[in-house]
Amino acid sequence: MSRTRKSAAKNHPAVENDETSASKRGGVKQDGIEQENPKPVAVESPEHPADDIEIDFSAPQYFLNRELSWLEFNYRVLREGMDERTPLLERLKFLAIFSSNLDEYFMVRIAALKQQVEADVRQLTPDGRTPAQQLHEIAAYLRVMLSEAHTHFEQVLRPVLSKEGIHILEYFDLTQEQRAYLNQYFEAQLFPVLTPLAVDPGHPFPYISNLSLSLAVQILDDKTGEEHFARVKVPGSLPRFVALPEELRRGVQGETLAWAGVPLEQVIAHNLDTLFPGMKIQAYYPFRVTRNADLALQEDEADDLLLAIEEALRKRRFGPVVRMEIDAHTPPEVREMLMQEMKLAEDDVYEIEGALNLGALMPLMSLPLPHLKDPDWSPITHPRLRRLDDLNDEDGEEKDIFAVIRKGDILLHHPYDSFATSVQRFITQAASDPNVLAIKQTLYRTSGDSPIVNALIQAADNGKQVAVLVELKARFDEASNIVWTRRLEEVGVHVVYGLVGLKTHTKTALVVRREGSRIRRYAHIGTGNYNSKTARLYTDLGILTCREDIGADLSDLFNYLTGYSRQRQYRKLMVAPVNLRQEMLALIQREIEHVKDGRQGRIVAKMNALVDPETISQLYRASCMGVKIDLIIRGMCALRPGVPKVSENIRVISIIGRFLEHSRIFYFHNGGDEQIFIGSADWMRRNLDRRVEVIIPVEEPYIAKELQEILGMMLSDNRQAWELQPDGTYMQRRPAPGHLERGTQYILMDRTRANAG
Hints:
The protein is α/β, with parallel strands linked by helices. It has three domains: 33-66 and 575-756, Endonuclease Chain A (Endonuclease, Chain A); 98-372, 2-Layer Sandwich (polyphosphate kinase like); 383-573, 2-Layer Sandwich (Endonuclease, Chain A). The protein contains 18 helices and 28 strands.
């Protein structure tokens, strides 16, 4: 390492000496924890390396496939929707998230694998698979998972919903009054927007838009005896379920149901004769397509990155189809015709029993039935910032967020701590403060009506120098970011679109303020986006600080982002792609050296994904030397824990709950001189080598202690934690008999409420 980082925090047993949970490897019960294996093994276990052979830590048998690992993550999401402990409408939410996750997975990951196959790429993944092998295994694995998801929805959730007065009705089960209402709805709301498209020699097969639901309609002309085929698109601009009015929502005993609705495609299907007068409707079959939606962009050839991305967005609509979901009862001739027209192989087609697109269930979460949802959670103002909310407080200094920051760094943990009264307040107050001279900020993803962007616009109107790096290449937020870019440029904000070949993923803001005869820099560095909406749904960390070394580092970083700079050294920050990879590997190596010298070696790391082969190999070396390693990885993990003589000292868990775990924390015991870091980067090649990321050391002892307590909670979680097995499957923890459930997110909500009292 280029320098030594130190933290004043010492001997916090929540992390360092977690003997009751972290050091018990491989048992069925762990400190009041039982594990449940929810499904059979999906990946073969590696052979044990021979004792007398030097281990090649880069060998394929020591890596899990990242694509299959992601599917395992999405299966854990699905399992939350199947867990009876989860409130009913929340179960629907998890099924909807499971489905929406798959949409994006096909649009990006499957699309990329198919492109590799078409380009005859034969390079093996770290686990030894070709692109074609991965596609075949993914398809086989997904069919089982999708069958389980749809069977659970149709056979378990729908009956339970009905018992609660929530009825998703089939058209055949409707009364005459209900059908009459839907016929009127069709005439008034649907008929004007529907466009039936014939398919014959005079009418080519129509363009099918991405993620659109359609009806394949078989038609008979009674006069000629000819059979025809047509496609009717189900409008995506209308609700997927047509809700019945209260007077038509009656149960078997005459009671008014909480909600009743009919799938939109069924309303259309049973009025098709209106669209094809004089024809006989023989049958209809729903189908849905997914297209390649990843941007193909040659940045180094673009004269104007903004215009290049706008053009790429237009082309995205016409990406090749990578998946077709189709009703399981569709006859072979219709299925084959659709496959031929959209150039699909057998592995690209997924037969669905029941309703297509479970993601359409999400709007049911808005039903006013609080007893079927998680208890409401409203983020609470951080204790250090509470006096800023008190309009009756006469202490003028405490009205100033900058004065609060000068008293010491502030650790923010969203959504437990309020984003609006912390990060958002930091930027909005800077925008109006006459002593603030400049604001510099990165924006990766932000909300539709962004208070942060509006504050930056206000700052520019107030004559402050404002520089914003808007990452135009943030996937699926490109169009939104283009809109914000233009708004910012119109008011004179200096907007940078990002660096060629790199995505700017770091979450940083720098405020430059005149205070008397000196200039002081205030900063926010976090793990999450400056998005007020996701700040209520994702768990993220951030630090507000005015430490001079951090401010100086951020000034250098923004010069790197906005100008021409080859900055290679930073005082405190680890920055990708400059030095983050080397620094992280060195921190792991330092734990190895401590063990060699007879001291304890301990690493705890929390992140979203771990797939970087070099980092995984280094963790294996550390494990073999006796370093105790706990990894809290929400999503993909290519590391195999618990492999004899390779990773016996490594445990991996995943926390899945009502909030999306998005924060990144890195703890190193360092022979007792502990160090802890937070930041924006996962241990993935893209984060370490192809993105601009920032990791900040935590040097305030009370903040370091709080972070270690959070890690300790997660390591002993027996409600929301899943433990990764050597074969790639996950086992869900459950409380052992006589032990209470300890879910990290529930504990943190309770603790935040208690601190607010």
